[in-house]
Amino acid sequence: MTLEQLRIFIAVASREHVTQAAGELNLTQSAVSAAVAALEERYATKLFDRVGRRIALTDAGRLFLVEARAVLARAKAAELVLSDLAGLKRGSLALAASQTIGNYWLPEKMQLFRKAHPGVDLHLTIDNTARVATMVRDGTVDLGFVEGDVDDPALASRAVADDELIMVVGPRHPWASRRSIAPQDLIDTGWVLREPGSGTRSRFEEALRGFGVDPDRLTVRLELPSNEAVRTAIETGPEASVLSRLVAALALRAGTLAEVRFALPRRHFTMLRHKERSITAAETALMQVAAADAPRRGADYAI
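RESULT FIELD:
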């Protein structure tokens, strides 16, 4: 049984006339008769009585007409859903982001997307970089946003924004008044850092190795699971830390943090998707919003 057969049956049943139904459907009379005959033969059920030159629905035909109309109505509704999804009138996207991105960069992008496509629901999970990559790989979310590079052959990545890591201390820390510090000075103070697996921690340790400093030589007094916790600990304690300038900006302006002049490499925010999943219209639209100011480097896939 096909939707076309149902459409023909409904037209014939509504008019109880094959020729009129054929004219409405822009089909030949023989094609219409063949479609009805195929239904009757396939299910060994007579749907019409032939009365003279006219036809009339049988009891079975009247019952089947109700169901046939319901099926076509559901098919039409399904077609409208696909049309709405393609036109971004409805839908949903599950996103995951590492903390700096999820708290300080992505919300503005989500607002821009929602203004353009209010019928598409967005759901955001915030975790560290390692967990976000896992969620994208496992299909728990559609798109992920992380700080830095992710080495996973199942994932495609694209740099969507630049970010600056800065070294910060409280205003009473000895480094707060120094013009600059040298790499070997880093082992002379205590540190408050994000947990292993976070993008900020990974990029800082990578930078240390580039300066010839073994990260294991740092005195890490606290490992905290959020940027806000790290920032507060530095504001009130004697240690140093590394944060995104986005995270530290308000505290720097308020004077509760001081920036230490130390040349840390810039990093980029990266968008992740699974290579084997097809890209929906909603994902493409969000990618375009997210990558509006993307650096021209580091892209594995185009949008």
